[in-house]
Amino acid sequence: MIDEPYRWVEAIANRREYIETELASGSPIVVLETREGLLALTLGGDRQKIFEIYDRIAMAAIGHPADIERLRMLALEVASTEGFTRSPGDVALRRLVSYSLAPAVKAAFEQIYNPPYLVRVLFIELGRNDVAHPSLLMALDYDGSFRCMIKGASPLASGIASTPRANEALQRMLTDYKEPASLRDACKFAARCWSASSLAGTAGESGIDPVIAPQKIEEHLREQSASGMLEAALLAEKQGSRVCFRKLTANELADVW
Amino acid sequence: MTIATDSSGDFLSVLSKHAPSYLASTAAFARATRSLAPVAASGLYEPLIESTTILAFKFAHGVLVAGDRRATAGNTVVYERADKVIEIDERSIMAIAGVPATAWEMARILEHSFQFYRRSQLQEMSVEGKVRTLSKLLRDNLGMVLQGVGAVSPLFATHDGATGRIYFYDTLGAQFEAVDFTTTGSGAPAVRSVLHYVNRWSGRSLCTLGREESLLLALRALETAALSDTATGGIDHRHSVFPIIKLITAGGIETITAQELQDLFEGEVA
Are A240 and B120 a contacting pair at CB < 8 A? Predict the structure, then answer.
């Protein structure tokens, strides 16, 4: 079958359709730049979705748990090896994704006889307060494609979602984030962005207006909070420690609702 | 394409997979040094008396770890600002006595191993696991010890959330938990005498001492060691070169600033 090029293209198209179907029920991830650092927030419950990769790098993912674990371990191994053989300061997200992770994910996607990675990942890197090392977000998709979002004049505000409609709703909400907020306010705003995206994702392609009323957003958030748990993490400078990652406590998330 | 990853949390196996040249160069160095050591051929070996003094004791709020700053090569003072008290993670410290090249590399491997385990396994390694990891590194260094190069005799101090704990090792990796205090290095006999006297006959045991009392005691003990051991650096207050002192409590690790040590020295030690 694969000897014929058009069969390969058809197989790739089928793969893409299959993976999009598998990812459709995933919970969105929202990342916001706050006054304290970079916040990542999602709502789940059955498993962890936001992970520490290295001192200033975190990862959040939608997709199959086993594939998320494989990619997470690969990222950990590459980053830790680089940090040890050179130095922790030499570990850079851009090189990690461009040279190690994206090629591996692309190769898995295009090898028709092997399983692809059923994942959509958002990597977060905390910058170093100088122009040469700004904060950076990198979204890596199941086909190995990736896009970068670099901190500029406006605060970093991005995310990943399970479907194009959910992503559109998320991006529309994020356009209202004009300035870095306090951690508390950013958590509240991120939760509403999550709710809007989740609502748009569950509505499917039924033609519902992607501009969702605030009341519906609040109702959906309350409904989901009964069955799921908020998960949030912050990348921020910590005195006396190179490690910048920490999970937010239940107290810090208590008044999000 | 399936990427094989290691989910055991063992950093050394990750290093052997992703950076085999690093471990190969270490093995090559070990082979090259075999020709330099008559000790192994004689069947005897003498533990090196390492030129340093490090100490650790339990005080009221946790554990104090201190080390002098001098590095020597025979009779020559090579460096007066060596850092021998190294933070491994948020609650663990390794103080090193021995060949600096080996000791610092061990500290680096230990630090990366603990962090890699925590990040990959999503939980911190237990205290027993941390203690055994250092023991294994020392055992793996046995070849260098028997050849007369690369001996390391460290202290490991940590806080398990409830209480501070101190461990000391021999150069072959045997681990021992200290009840009150421990010290190692060429200046250790003097420090051991001071700490034993205070703990036994001063009227107050070490574990009841407050923060400032503990810092004073550490400064005085190291200054005492420096009097009789030329390989132990004393306090050079003119250049503000003080021992490195760190405290481990339930809240984490605190490094005592040079300014605070200077104030203590001028007020109570000088």
Answer: no
Tokens of B171: 């150069």
What ipTM is given for this predicted complex? Answer: 0.91
The Cα–Cα gap between B270 and B234 comes to 12
C-beta atoms of B15 and A53 within 8 A: no
Within a 10 A sphere around the Cβ of B58, how many other Cβ atoms?
A: 25
Residue type at position A197:
S
Contact (CB<8Å) B1/A70: no
Cα angle B102, B104, B108; round to 5 = 115
The pLDDT of residue B5 is above 70: no
Predicted pLDDT of residue B141: 80
Query: pLDDT tier at B74 (50, 70, 90 boundaries)?
Result: confident
A24 backbone dihedrals φ, ψ, rounded to 5°: -60, -25
What's the gap in Å between the CA of B202 and the closest CA on chain A? Answer: 35
Contacts of A13 (CB under 8 A, 6+ apart): none
pLDDT at B56 over 90: yes
User: CB B183: neighbour CB atoms within 10 A?
Assistant: 29
CB-based burial, B155-175: b 16+ in 10 Å, e otherwise: bbbbbeeeebbbbbbebebee
Q: State the catalytic residues of B.
A: 52
Q: Which of B5, B7, B109 should one mutate to test binding to chain A, selecting the residue with the greatest count of A CBs within 10 A?
A: B5
Per-block average pLDDT, block size 10, for chain A (257 residues)?
72 92 94 96 89 97 95 96 93 96 95 92 93 93 96 92 93 93 95 93 64 84 84 92 93 85
A57 beta partners: A54, A125
The answer to whether B14 contacts A80, with C-beta atoms less than 8 Å apart, is yes
Best residue in A53, A64, A69, A80 for a mutation probing chain B (most B CBs within 10 Å):
A80
